[in-house]
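User: Hey, quick favor. My workstation is busy. Could you predict this chain's structure for me?
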Amino acid sequence: MELIDGKKVAEEIKGQLRKEVEMLVAQNRKVPHLAAILVGDNPASMAYVNNKVKSCYDAGFMSTLYKRSADISQEELLALVDQLNNDKDIDGFIVQLPLPKHIDELTVTMAIDPSKDVDGFHPVNFGKMAQGLPCFLPATPYGITLLLQHYNIETSGKKVVVVGRSHCRYTYEYFTFPQRG
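Assistant: No problem, here it is.
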């Protein structure tokens, strides 16, 4: 049995991305810029967002963190989302979930421009993903797919159980990868 080393693969991918960014810079083209909105002081959310900011820098991207207190109003948060939607310098952004109880996550998700929704949570991106069209993909499943591809792990006909927490609810799914050919 071979150990799947996600950290090692992530470092390789960030190294490849850094080379691509260096080529963009050499061609006087724009460096990708990812922003993140973090509301409140949830330790898990803070760690996740800080890792995203660090990963951006490791890959040569620009990154901006917009940290807001947990008592921000929904209107203030939506104004910030609108600001980032319209900021030509920002290529994509995330709004870290969960949000405080007084903010409707669906309303905030729907306010994000799908072309900047790097979490892939907007229904437009879900639909594009389902149709195999280019879009931002949810990070965790995409990362797992990259790991399976990196280690040449055959999934055809395999049974899989996924237990996790989506941004809406806890999930338990059982599925079988279709047979190829």
